[in-house]
Amino acid sequence: AAREATWARWTDVAAWPAWNPMCAEAILHGPLAEGAQLELNLVHPRGKGRTFWTRPRVVEVAAPERVAWEAVGPGLTIRTETTLAEEPDGTLLTLTSATTGRFAISMKLMALGDRTLARMYAAMLNALVADMGRVA
Predict the structure, then answer these.
(1) Which pairing describes strands 57-62 and 66-73: parallel, antiparallel, or unpaired?
(2) pLDDT in tens, the chain (136 residues)
(3) Given its phi and psi angles, is residue 97 left (phi above 0), alpha (psi -120 to 50 degrees) or beta?
(4) Distance (Å, rounded) from C-alpha 87 to C-alpha 131?
(5) Of 2, 24, 29, 111, which one's alpha carbon is 20 to 30 angstroms from that of 50?
């Protein structure tokens, strides 16, 4: 799909539960802008239906190319960034996540390691591709 259409679908956070199997509930408080609060109830890929809440803040918006948010806790910051690039046959959406801080290794070992995040993000992106195909 075109970058603008992909951007519109990806940044319509409230609609995530309709197409995203990893999202049980999503709320964006206010417009998508730096400082806006997100509330995401995400499905843990290893949790057999178990969900967890994360409440990141939007830290960067450069429509329709990039959006980033950060979840911050004691000794821990998780930054998630999405970039969208035009390709000859549609849009390349890249989703990255970085965990930093004193407790980063604990988070990776006990909760959301690289493989677990990769499974979660792959499911999200595959669902987005399928949803964009239905819309087109």
Answers:
(1) antiparallel
(2) 999 999 999 999 999 999 999 999 999 999 999 999 999 999 988 777 789 899 999 999 999 999 999 999 888 899 999 999 999 999 999 999 888 888 777 766 566 677 888 888 999 999 999 999 887 6
(3) beta
(4) 18
(5) 29
